[in-house]
Amino acid sequence: MTELLRSWVETANDPDSPFPLNNLPFGVFSAGDAPRCGVAIGDRVLDLAALQAAGLLPESGFDAPALNSFMAKGKEAWADIRARLTDLLREGNASDTLRAALQEMGGVTLHLPFTVAEYTDFYAGRQHAFNVGSLFRDPENALPPNWLHIPIGYNGRASTVVVSGTEFHRPMGQLKGPQDAMPGFGPSKRLDIELEMGAVVGLPTEMGQRISVDEADDMIFGYVLLNDWSARDIQAWEYQPLGPFQAKAFATTISPWVVTKAALAPFRCATPPREKELLPHIRDTGPMLYDIDLSVTMAAPGGTPTEICRTNYNTLYYSAAQQLAHHASSGCAMRTGDLLGSGTISGPEKGMFGSLLEMTWGGRDPITLEGGETRTFIEDGDTLTLQGHAQGEGYRIGFGPCVGTILPARDQG
Amino acid sequence: MTELLRSWVETANDPDSPFPLNNLPFGVFSAGDAPRCGVAIGDRVLDLAALQAAGLLPESGFDAPALNSFMAKGKEAWADIRARLTDLLREGNASDTLRAALQEMGGVTLHLPFTVAEYTDFYAGRQHAFNVGSLFRDPENALPPNWLHIPIGYNGRASTVVVSGTEFHRPMGQLKGPQDAMPGFGPSKRLDIELEMGAVVGLPTEMGQRISVDEADDMIFGYVLLNDWSARDIQAWEYQPLGPFQAKAFATTISPWVVTKAALAPFRCATPPREKELLPHIRDTGPMLYDIDLSVTMAAPGGTPTEICRTNYNTLYYSAAQQLAHHASSGCAMRTGDLLGSGTISGPEKGMFGSLLEMTWGGRDPITLEGGETRTFIEDGDTLTLQGHAQGEGYRIGFGPCVGTILPARDQG
């Protein structure tokens, strides 16, 4: 495992900083002016549009409100820019031009880092699939028969993918309890999170083009934290036979910084042992998961954030590269900016479950927050925060928080 | 019902022309040069970018390779442009400028008429839902319990929506028959069509904004024919529990002209009687379906096109406006360029079924084409064509064909 690379930005050398020189995650920021691309370093944001204008970086589309242009350039360009930034920010290499291109992170607004082309959500957590299968269907046959053969996924809604910190209203929808004669329309009473990672597709494929798992891995630009907010009561009523629709269409929150595959490279790890041999087009060809410590906190309005889940990305059954290879396998064209949700990441024990549905076992066992509040599902004003980092020797690769606060439903009725 | 409006473009006055002055559908064309917006009139395409440049139309974004700018302007702008075009093309109003802006349809290439923001496919045909429920699940409980209460839909894949005439390869995928111990990977053997209409969303909504059915209807710019190609064997293995994914991701074909709501207005009709009262947010507020005669032909390679289905859009249970109101009901943001597939349109009898799955009852009863070829599902080289028109007094509002030819699977294995 590599060690801390020291930067002249002093705060980047703090072993607890999420953004050391080893990280260099890409995002989009503004400071009362036009949104443009930047990288996080310590407690600062480096203005890549300014560096590009000053000739310190090659023209890479950084003077845009989205990373898509840069993401479409592919792995050689990504590596080249990373090498240049590493050099520019390395201890001893400070200059007035570089200092002028730094902004305090506390003083900028972070935007959605890329234009989401399409959003696909997978279901690659074995424990989660087992838990949900037990709760929604039959504990005896909790895992669907295809689950060990296919990275199951569904198309989600890209128009409501939002950046961390975006507040939104509790969704409304058709609800029908098992005892109700007729459905009603009203605010979801079983609003939930799903702790996920999101893989960000950089390179596209053409319609009809299939790709190997290795090619798929090369297409991935980086990763974000992803909260796939879910209205369980809307979901239960609507999802048969064609899958989740409005239950997950109202909001999906991602963390503001895209952490590159290069930054995560020292933390690559293998998928768990295969219970059934995978077909060649999605067979493992190397370690493509990552050892990323993940947690969720929940805070009641004005209350203390309480950790309600701690788990790891390395528990998933399928890697994002396998998911992407499967996604393209029919001939489906993939696009720069496609976002692939991993599926809910639930470890094998209760404190490791990545959704309230699982933590409270369908709402039967409330959890208690540090202020004494009890919760089965999310109440109005609650704040949910996902956090994640990979732990190196004396440094960490952090993602920045993925935060959402729920406003009351509006226009009820 | 209105009568034929006569145009100085003589071919538009033929009672069998799909594109009389009453129609004026919008599309995107090129003739060896840059794609731009046009309208179909008789056997000609009128170059709207040229008219805009000549000052005969207000600046409406017609000098672009997609209708999205114009579609985002809303119903007053749509009505204004329609009124101006009607006047410019009315009998007696020919001019040299107008004649110069006409191109022969046979000499132009028609492109995808708008950039598809997101693609959603619904399931609003009662007979189709009953047929598929009978085939895939249980004939005794064929209609899912939610079906009469919610316009069921799922998010499809926008990246593979293509214009009529686009050829594509037979999809590959994971397949597992009921007798197979393990799945395999190979070309779909049960490739199918779904005869649908597509509603094209012009006006967007914000995240969290709900809309009435009337507001939803106002947001719809127009309609196209839509073939939701489906690989039934991939679908059968993958679709539980999260719905269709790769089985429908490889291609969706639409007709090249967007027929506006104004052109279809004389053909509005009501949905069928409600079997269960709908909740207020999707309750019918007026006639929002259309009397559109639809047909499908199938041709073996080099063979005669044989009509295999004739049905009508008016048989659907939910209108596109109801589907759109439901789509936004959770707070899901809708976008200019969203495409909503109606669901397969199957009439009550066998010759009216909109998919081969239904026509051949799951592949058990082959159909015979006019050349004597028999088919259960689509074979390589087959050409499938959807056609549709609304019949007025001495004129028809046509859509232009929605055609696809299947190439053999590539890179097998």
Question: What does it look like?
Answer:
Two copies of one chain form a homodimer. Chain A is α+β, with helices and mostly antiparallel strands. The mean pLDDT of chain A is 97. The first copy, chain A, has helices spanning 48-53, 68-71, 75-89, 96-100, 126-136, 213-219, 232-238, 261-264, 320-327, 356-359, and strands spanning 26-30, 36-41, 44-47, 102-104, 109-111, 119-122, 153-155, 161-163, 168-169, 172-175, 184-187, 191-192, 195-201, 220-227, 230-231, 252-254, 259-260, 268-269, 289-290, 293-299, 306-312, 339-341, 367-368, 374-375, 383-391, 396-398, 402-407. The radius of gyration of chain A is 21 Å and the shape is globular. Chain A has two domains: 10-111, SH3 type barrels (Roll); 119-407, Alpha-Beta Complex (Fumarylacetoacetate hydrolase, domain 2). In chain A, the strands form seven sheets. In chain A, strands 6, 7, 8, 13, 14, 16, 17 and 22 form an eight-stranded mixed β-sheet that branches. At the A-B interface, β7, β9, β10 and α7 of A face β7, β9, β10 and α7 of B.
Main attributes?
homodimer; 413 residues; alpha+beta; SH3 type barrels; Fumarylacetoacetate hydrolase, domain 2; eight-stranded mixed β-sheet; six-stranded mixed β-sheet; 10 helices; 17% helix; globular
